[in-house]
Amino acid sequence: MMKYALVSTAGVLFACSSFAADCGKVMIAEMNWNSASLMANVDQFILANGYDCEAELVPGDTMPTGTSMIEKGQPDIAPELWTNSMKSALDRGVNDGRLSIASKSLADGGEEGFWVPRYMVEEYPELATIEGIRKHADKFEHPEDPSKSAFYGCPAGWNCQITAKNLFNALNLGESNFELIDPGSGAGLSGSIARAYERNQPWFGYYWAPTAILGKYEMVKVDFGSGVDEQHYIDCISKDDCLEPQVTMYPPSPVYTVTTSEFAERAPDAYEYLSRRSFTNNEMNGLLAWMEENQADGKYAAENFMFEHEDIWSHWVSSDVKVKLDEALDNL
């Protein structure tokens, strides 16, 4: 934790006013999935109430947010950036002095893959492999066309739409009569898993962890039998113009909190908080399950987190900041 020296009352007042001025207006990207929305709202509450920042949430998504931070210096903070999809660009941003990696927002990293329900693998163990999926393609009936097999991809606009489509093509799933389904939204994708599980029906598609869905429903990640070719994933699979996709499992996904270098220099105390703020996958799975069970949005979930999980967030801030946050919670 940071150490603080004793100063006069006038010094304290000056330090506080300087502190607020240094932080100023802060734009935080709120991505459109639950863990990122929760994290952005937690950051907004803590930065606004603990560090006197004018913290504002703005809509975000992986590629456009990362690109905007590099090229335009806004937003100031991306709380949960899955970096595999734009590793080269982010590395250049850091090397050019435009970006700063504050912390691993998910301490254990993220996990992506193609999944099937465990109850299907228990009945047909070969479904844990892509060869078994091809062999039993007829079991994954398309919801709108019984003559086709269904593979659930990512919603349009998400970067995983690109990677899932490229791996769908690399695995020649179209030749096995699969059709790639756009679920329309993150809720549509998670809802398709929930419906299948509750009805004990087949399901095959893309998903990621940590998530409430994979915490609630037991799923098995399909083995492509290829191992991980991280360089090909970066150079081709993660790009929309990948012309010759090759089979590779998803590399483990580093998930970072990224800020502009200007923010890190302008607001070092707020940046120090971000460098400490991190969730384990178990912590996040539990929070996401609570969000789903209570149909909570990011703001409500963040407030609940602040009330119920002082044991977690109190380690991210100094004792002085914690006093300010306690007062803010008392006034909610």
TrEMBL record:
InterPro entries in UniProt: ABC_Gly_betaine_transp_sub-bd
Keywords per UniProt: Signal
ABC-type glycine betaine transport system substrate-binding domain span: 25-306
Single Gene Ontology MF annotation: transmembrane transporter activity
This protein's record includes keyword rRNA-binding: no
Source species, domain of life: Bacteria
SUPFAM superfamilies membership: Periplasmic binding protein-like II (SSF53850)
CDD domains: PBP2_HisX_like
This protein's GO CC annotations: ATP-binding cassette (ABC) transporter complex
Signal sequence range: 1-20
Pfam family, one: OpuAC
Protein name: Glycine betaine-binding protein OpuAC
Species name: Marinomonas gallaica
